[in-house]
Amino acid sequence: MDQKADNRKLRTFIIIGIGQLVSILGTGLTNFAIGIWVYQSTRSVTKFALTILAVSIPSILISPFAGALVDRWDRRRTMILGDSVAGFCSLAIALLLYFESLQVWHVCLIIAVAAAAGVLHSLAYTASIPLLVSKEQLSRVSGIMQIGPALAQIASPLAAGMMLAFMPVYWVMVVDFATFLFAVSTLLIVHIPRPAATVEGESAKGSLWSEAAFGWAYIKARPGLIWLLVFFAVINFNMGMSNVVLTPMLLGMASIEVVGRIASIASLGLLVGSIALSIWGGPRRRIQGVLGFTVMLGLCLILMGLRPSVALIAIAGFGFVFTVPIIDGCNQAIWLSKTPLDVQGRVLSIRMMVVWSASPLAYLIAGPLTDKIFEPLLAINGPLAGSVGKIIGVGEGRGMGLLLIILGIFTLLSTAAGYMNSRLRYLEDDLLDAIPEVVAQGGEESVVADKTAATA
């Protein structure tokens, strides 16, 4: 791989990354503005929750088929398609708002379509990364890719709030549409190499259904990847539960303004963690990064529930969110390096479906579990008020604090179990890399598959 080809790939990655950063910031504006509009228009938490389900459920259901399409289609054109559909969804909402015709069911339908387009785009983007960077840089690049969402989480609500103060809400969606146009324009001027056919890819060809099912067959044949998938499903469930109870717990002990400050501090942790991984690149053995920082995540969960202290929760919240991009980045690098390029869409989509499925389950369980069991346990004069309550306190929010502590302990136990599982701990040794070599051919880059991948 000559220096000229290497520089060209790096330039391509930077151009795409800039376009996606702008697009992510625009999407953050719309997400915030739509959430405000739905709640202010309906004053219904249930209808607000429907918009969240309209994003998550279609994404889970469509991901295996989206993965098969990503492997069939040109990945640059797939990203253009995903950005274009999502952009026109924002424009549709803007037009409905302008004509004062927008209804909640319109929002749910349109954002479901946008979410499906987003899955297609996300898989194509992720599967393109190993075509543009070396396998040694995958963790670092995963950190860079998470800087955009972290910035959006911090900046988009602030920017959207200022925009809504002096302009109608539909202009926010128009701005989002413009950011999608910018992202598409960056994709139009770059070239992404083609992945060469591998033994796995050739054997997986067939109907869309059979190709979608191949991702599971690939993972199932590799026990280390199965256990990595199970581990992340468990951790994602714990995080989903914690996300549901954290804000209500804080509102029981602090003002909305203070809760907002804590959320900002936590979001800053996401940005710092992303930047740290992009500079550091993660440990050489990426599974150590996954397990090691999950220990830190579990400890932070315990600290957040330990005492009704705003300062303690802010510090623990920063640490909790700081670990997320490092854990995700190391995990992403493992999957990308262990999966042949021409089947990455299918394999990554199954990973996405399984891990994402844990969150809706957590959302459904967390509310009743908190209201019916944990809060009554630590109410004043509750069953645990004289024992556990002497340590973590009693009253409103302390039951949720106990739930966070239990989730933290469960996270630590899950990590210990993961470390003791030799299939998971030695995953990187047992499964050969499937990252190819990239060579220049007649001025156009193509991918030559690593022959060791077929035996992995």
Write the layout of secondary structure elements.
Elements: H1 3-42, H2 45-72, H3 75-98, H4 104-132, H5 138-166, H6 170-188, H7 199-203, H8 208-220, H9 223-251, H10 256-280, H11 286-306, H12 310-338, H13 344-377, H14 389-392, H15 398-420, H16 422-425, H17 427-430, E1 437-441, E2 444-448
Antiparallel strand pairs: 1-2
Helix pairs in contact: 1-2, 1-4, 1-5, 1-6, 2-4, 2-8, 2-13, 3-4, 3-6, 4-13, 5-10, 5-12, 8-13, 9-13, 9-15, 10-12, 11-12, 11-15, 13-15
Provide the number of structural domains. 2
What's the main sheet like?
Answer: 2 strands, antiparallel
CATH class of the largest domain: Mainly Alpha
Number of helices: 17
Q: What structural class do helix, strand and pairing data support?
A: mainly alpha
Low-confidence stretches: 438-456
Mean pLDDT: 87
- N/C terminus separation: 24 Å
What is the radius of gyration computed over CA atoms, rounded to a whole number of angstroms?
23 Å
Helix content: over 70%
User: What percentage of amino acids are in beta strands?
Assistant: under 5%
Here the CATH topology of the largest domain equals Growth Hormone, Chain: A
- Strand order of the main beta sheet, please? 1-2
Q: What features would you describe in this structure?
A:
This protein is mostly helical and 456 residues long. The chain folds into two domains: 1-194, MFS general substrate transporter like domains (Growth Hormone, Chain: A), CATH 1.20.1250; 200-456, Growth Hormone, Chain: A. It is 79% helix and 2% strand. It contains 17 helices and two strands. The protein has helices at 3-42, 45-72, 75-98, 104-132, 138-166, 170-188, 199-203, 208-220, 223-251, 256-280, 286-306, 310-338, 344-377, 389-392, 398-420, 422-425, 427-430; strands spanning 437-441, 444-448. The longest helix has 40 residues, at 3-42. The protein starts with a helix and ends in an 8-residue tail after the last strand. The relative contact order is 0.14. The model is unreliable at 438-456 (pLDDT under 50).
